[in-house]
């Protein structure tokens, strides 16, 4: 049995937080002792955490101010491997590990396209973290764990990080028996009582997700018999609704907010669309593939092209090309639903818990059997 520590800011609604709750549980399933440490505390994904995972909350008012408390915790508790997640947390963890003498056991993780993600949050401390991180990544003894080949290459191409400074591990997105599970009942009325084809998207209502392009694509479809549901919340809600109204789509586009079971909604849809401008390794796309529902995605940096094997699994279109996106949606809606269904399930299987956790064990211990 190995002892692992996962370090996060909190367990908020983000994809990284959700994946770390899944990774913690998968590591326990593999026979390990796992502690999840939150620099602050709480968050909606706490409800998803396996009760066998130990939790520690430092209750720091800000991540940067957690360095002394984290250093004391690392000094007092010995772990075989320590994993920090997200750039600003990585910087805090590196400082604390250096102070506690545990740097040799620390691993850090990048979850998104670094060159794009660094522009998202304008806060001074976050921008400072993105400036410092690449330099620190060259100095720490263990390579940065990236969620896709594209994320790793982006870090090498756009910062001073070298190829030997990065490695790759897959997100544990799915339960091992995902292909045996029957989907739940959808909650949206358009999916419960279908009168038209329904396209579904899932994600934060933020510029990164490209939902403005998706709405434009729906307007460009040659038929009015298609509806769009975007599950998620975010700052662009009002803007996206106004766009839909301006395009005459007020009765064909709905933004119902978060859903408790996105897989149930996607499984009942006729097509899932990932319209992002950038990603790391989009979990929503993997989850959609796991339902067997036809999908369309942008060839954004990074992740979709790897997951969809450069378009062999499902169509890929250029970022912000609403016309191409509309054409791909028409193609999927006009193709028998079960066409390539097995291929989609096979592509998703790479991200099942047991398979994915082995990539983390290899990255953190040097060997999955260590």
Number of helical segments? Answer: 15
CATH superfamily of the largest domain: Glycogen Phosphorylase B
Ranges where pLDDT stays below 50 over 5 or more residues in a row are none
Text of the CATH class of the largest domain: Alpha Beta
User: Roughly how many Å apart are the termini?
Assistant: 9 Å
Helical residues, percent = 25-40%
Gyration radius, rounded: 21 Å
Tell me the strand percentage band.
Answer: 15-25%
Number of strands: 13
H-E order: EHEEHEHEHHEHEHEHEHEHEHEHEHHH
Domain Glycosyltransferase subfamily 4-like N-terminal: 14-173
GO molecular function: glycosyltransferase activity
Pfam families: Glyco_trans_1_4 (PF13692), Glyco_transf_4 (PF13439)
Organism: Pseudomonas khorasanensis
Task: List the keywords.
13 strands, 370 residues, 2 domains, six-stranded parallel sheet, Glyco_trans_4-like_N, Glycosyltransferase, Rossmann fold, 16% strand, alpha/beta, seven-stranded parallel sheet
């Amino acid at each position: 049995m190995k002892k692992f520590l996962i370090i996060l800011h909190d367990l908020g609604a983000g994809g990284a937080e959700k994946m770390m709750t899944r990774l913690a549980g998968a590591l326990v399933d593999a026979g390990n002792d796992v502690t999840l440490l939150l620099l602050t505390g709480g968050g909606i994904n706490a409800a998803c955490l396996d009760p066998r995972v130990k939790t520690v909350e430092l209750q720091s008012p800000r991540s940067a101010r957690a360095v002394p408390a984290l250093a004391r915790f690392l000094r007092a508790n010995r772990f075989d491997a320590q994993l920090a997640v997200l750039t600003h947390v990585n910087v805090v963890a590196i400082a604390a590990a250096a102070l506690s003498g545990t740097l040799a056991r620390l691993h850090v993780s990048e979850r998104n396209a670094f060159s794009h993600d660094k522009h998202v949050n304008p806060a001074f401390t976050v921008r400072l973290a993105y400036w410092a991180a690449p330099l620190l990544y060259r100095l720490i003894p263990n390579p940065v764990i990236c969620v896709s080949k594209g994320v790793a290459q982006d870090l090498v191409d756009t910062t001073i990080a070298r190829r030997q400074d990065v490695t790759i591990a897959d997100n544990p997105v799915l339960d091992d028996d995902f292909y045996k599970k029957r989907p739940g009942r959808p909650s949206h009325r358009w999916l419960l009582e279908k009168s038209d084809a329904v396209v579904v998207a899932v994600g934060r209502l933020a510029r990164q997700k490209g939902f403005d392009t998706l709405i434009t694509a729906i307007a460009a479809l040659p038929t009015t018999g298609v509806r769009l549901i975007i599950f998620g919340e975010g700052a662009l809600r009002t803007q996206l609704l106004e766009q839909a109204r301006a395009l005459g789509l007020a009765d064909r586009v709905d933004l119902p907010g978060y859903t408790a079971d996105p897989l149930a909604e996607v499984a009942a849809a006729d097509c899932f669309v990932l319209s992002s401008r950038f990603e790391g390794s989009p979990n929503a796309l993997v989850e959609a593939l796991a339902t067997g529902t036809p999908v369309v995605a942008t060839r954004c940096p990074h992740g979709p092209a790897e997951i969809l094997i450069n378009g062999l699994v499902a169509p890929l279109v250029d970022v912000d090309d609403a016309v191409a996106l509309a054409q791909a949606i028409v193609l999927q809606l006009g193709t028998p639903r079960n066409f390539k269904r097995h291929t989609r399930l096979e592509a998703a299987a790479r991200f099942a818990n047991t398979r994915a956790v082995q990539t983390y064990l290899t990255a953190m211990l040097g060997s999955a059997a260590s």
